[in-house]
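> example.struct
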């Protein structure tokens, strides 16, 4: 897939069908973008599971934090990634080892690795990169 642009319907369909989001790189700091986006997604009715090994066992915005994706006990619709692009290959390895694969992996603004994304797409996982659902949702769904 060409990750330079996405159709509005591709993004809107993802946002409408997603219910459970694992937010990798969740931060308890209200000044961090991941914290603000998590708050937005929770307000829109998504179930958001924060993933941060340094915060595992604590809560962020009232949600229990897990240390890694494999610690999530329920199926994930989307993995929303707030990590540097150079961490994507290892994260995508972790995603591909899950018992139930997510339907979507979403890389936040400036988070992109086309080669790593191709591996997920070969497994039937949709990929969005260098976009923010908190920007796309009001534009396409609300």
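> example.seq
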């Amino acid at each position: 897939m060409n990750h330079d642009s996405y159709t509005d319907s591709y993004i809107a369909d993802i946002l409408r069908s997603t219910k459970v989001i694992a937010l990798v790189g969740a931060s308890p700091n209200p000044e961090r973008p991941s914290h603000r986006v998590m708050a937005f997604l929770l307000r829109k009715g998504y179930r958001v599971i924060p993933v941060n090994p340094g915060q595992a066992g604590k809560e962020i915005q009232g949600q229990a934090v897990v240390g890694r994706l494999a610690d999530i006990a329920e199926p994930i619709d989307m993995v929303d990634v707030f990590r540097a692009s150079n961490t994507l290959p290892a994260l995508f390895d972790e995603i591909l080892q899950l018992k139930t694969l997510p339907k979507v992996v979403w890389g936040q603004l400036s988070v992109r690795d086309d080669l790593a994304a191709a591996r997920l797409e070969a497994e039937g996982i949709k990929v969005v990169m260098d976009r923010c659902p908190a920007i796309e949702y009001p534009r396409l769904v609300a």
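> remarks
The chain has five helices and seven strands.
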